[in-house]
Amino acid sequence: MGRSPCCEKSHTNKGAWTKEEDDRLIAYIRAHGEGCWRSLPKAAGLLRCGKSCRLRWINYLRPDLKRGNFTEEEDELVIKLHSLLGNKWSLIAGRLPGRTDNEIKNYWNTHIRRKLLNRGIDPATHRPLNDSPVHQDVSSTISFNGVKQEKNEIIDNNPSKEERCPDLNLDLRISPPYHRTQQPADSFKTGAKPLCFFCSLGVKNSKECTCTIDTAAASSSGNNTNNSGYDFLGLKTGFLDFRSLEMK
DNA sequence: AATGCGTCCAACCGCCCCCTA
DNA sequence: ATAGGGGGCGGTTGGACGCAT
């Protein structure tokens, strides 16, 4: 017994969307906002699966989408983020305003993969193609555990530890997401604690999350004020300079 | 003009996670 | 505590298009 289908497939259209369907979806969302995708098609008079409506809206109809070619800066940012996050397209998209995960995924597979291959870099590992597998790390991409390890190394301030992914020199600074999460100014006003690295990336309830730890510590000590000095990564620096995570 | 091939990208599929009752 | 539902995500597919032969 599998789970119940998200919609009655026999009564739904599939394939390319028509102009009329687009108009109906846009009009409905303008009037009612993004709500329950499952019930939206019926309410909007669309013979579509709710998921299909969601995808169409997010990837194509949303008014804040940036259409057109990727800039060189966007290219490089995607490459850097991919080297850090792997195929977490939604997280990568969260750092590129106006770009969708689907768009970035397609762009990666069609353009950037080839670009990296031309540079002699394996797009999956971000290592030189002729690099012997014997010398490669077990993980094909930099995992969150790897990030945690790096973060701990910073905190430990121990420069003697071995570097990961030595071929990569990531001159990357991660800033809070452009959208989706709100915090910044208000959190300072209200005294709310800035998000840790994992929360800032949109990873919910991560085991690595330091927000809850700090919050618990703060509440247990009766101290509910902002832990000033910690940035959104949960580090004591003003920002995380990924040069300190250099993988050269 | 017809055909074959490669590329691009919108859309689908199925799994997973999270929330809620 | 847990099962079920809904939403989100990543992988994959297939049709449209352009170019070469």
Automatic annotation (TrEMBL):
<keyword id="KW-0677">Repeat</keyword>
<dbReference type="InterPro" id="IPR015495">
    <property type="entry name" value="Myb_TF_plants"/>
</dbReference>
<feature type="domain" description="HTH myb-type">
    <location>
        <begin position="62"/>
        <end position="116"/>
    </location>
</feature>
<dbReference type="InterPro" id="IPR001005">
    <property type="entry name" value="SANT/Myb"/>
</dbReference>
<keyword id="KW-0539">Nucleus</keyword>
<feature type="domain" description="Myb-like">
    <location>
        <begin position="9"/>
        <end position="61"/>
    </location>
</feature>
<dbReference type="InterPro" id="IPR017930">
    <property type="entry name" value="Myb_dom"/>
</dbReference>
<dbReference type="GO" id="GO:0003677">
    <property type="term" value="F:DNA binding"/>
</dbReference>
<feature type="domain" description="HTH myb-type">
    <location>
        <begin position="9"/>
        <end position="61"/>
    </location>
</feature>
<dbReference type="InterPro" id="IPR009057">
    <property type="entry name" value="Homeodomain-like_sf"/>
</dbReference>
<dbReference type="Pfam" id="PF00249">
    <property type="entry name" value="Myb_DNA-binding"/>
</dbReference>
<keyword id="KW-0238">DNA-binding</keyword>
<dbReference type="GO" id="GO:0005634">
    <property type="term" value="C:nucleus"/>
</dbReference>
<feature type="domain" description="Myb-like">
    <location>
        <begin position="62"/>
        <end position="112"/>
    </location>
</feature>
<protein>
    <submittedName>
        <fullName>Myb-related protein Hv1</fullName>
    </submittedName>
</protein>
